[in-house]
User: Fold this.
Amino acid sequence: MNYGRIPNNAETVLRGACPIVASFGERDRPLRGAATRLEQTLSKLGIACDVKEYAGAGHAFMNDHDSTVFKFFKFAFGMGYHEPSAADARARIVRFFHQHLR
Assistant:
């Protein structure tokens, strides 16, 4: 899960879920607190997880697009590609999949 909304009934929805790796950007205002909420819910349910919030990153920080639209959103809303966060998130995803998908 990358920068996704957490449902209000997360504990009900996620009960019995598979292991989850999730990444959020600290500057993603609509999702402020989502990483903490998700990690707490998954821990309470006993679901293996790797949840991280990246300082300095906004929404869509893994999207390395060079279009005018993405440039506008990065300028106007602080969202868009953030290379150090994207590189770390991708490495975490690969490690997590390697560990849990066998």
In short: The CA atoms of residues 4 and 89 lie 14 Å apart. The chain has a mean pLDDT of 90. The chain is about 45% helix and 10% strand. Helices lie at 10-14, 34-45, 68-77, 83-100.
